[in-house]
Amino acid sequence: GAVVSQHPSRVICKSGTSVKIECRSLDFQATTMFWYRQFPKQSLMLMATSNEGSKATYEQGVEKDKFLINHASLTLSTLTVTSAHPEDSSFYICSPLGGTEAFFGQGTRLTVV
Amino acid sequence: AQSVSQHNHHVILSEAASLELGCNYSYGGTVNLFWYVQYPGQHLQLLLKYFSGDPLVKGIKGFEAEFIKSKFSFNLRKPSVQWSDTAEYFCAVIFNDYKLSFGAGTTVTVRA
Prior knowledge:
The complex is a heterodimer. By secondary structure, chain A is an all-beta fold. Chain A has no helices and eleven strands. In chain A, strands 2, 4, 5, 6, 9, 10 and 11 form a seven-stranded mixed sheet that branches. In chain A, strands 1-3-8-7 form a four-stranded antiparallel sheet, with no helix packed on it. Chain B is built from no helices and twelve strands. Chain B has strands at residues 3-6, 10-14, 19-21, 23-26, 32-38, 44-50, 56-58, 64-68, 73-78, 87-94, 100-102, 106-111. In chain B, the strands form three sheets. In chain B, strands 2, 5, 6, 10, 11 and 12 form a six-stranded mixed sheet that branches. In chain B, strands 3-9-8-7 form a four-stranded antiparallel sheet, with no helix packed on it. In chain B, a hairpin with a 5-residue loop joins strand 7 and strand 8 (64-68). Classes of the chains: A mainly beta, B mainly beta. At the A-B interface, strand 5, strand 9 and strand 10 of A face strand 6 and strand 11 of B.
């Protein structure tokens, strides 16, 4: 099956700093990448959709200047949480689209203190 | 608005019991339907999917789901669960693009 690598799996950062999350599709190319956020006991909420080489499309209520997405290649996408605050603490999951099927990274637990 | 509903938040059952998890969606058009499972500490994994054809879909690990268009439902079933089926189960729907909309998830706890 398709292999997706997401790093880091856990990160703790101070309020006001930035955190970069990487997502790699190791054995397939992903033109489209989805980024999700999951709060405790809630479902995955789509944050943004990015296509390789293009600007990401953000869902309503998601600040594009706060959550910077770069999808510079077909195997790598990054999400940078800028000037993180405690309310940004959450579980972030990447999902590269391989053909017509979406695969998922293992997620990144972000804690902002 | 398009939405996905999972009826059960937490299900607790014993090994060998039968499992059925409900999933309903609100949309009158063509949909693609999925069930994902997330075992503790692991990635989301695809259990099964329905795009078209036979509405009874068989997936991995003995799971199956039935698409009932008239009821806007895609319930997941397993005749006899094992302790290893303890996990979080998510129903997901693609309504009219590539974006997945997820239900809230159901935690299934199987007691040995």
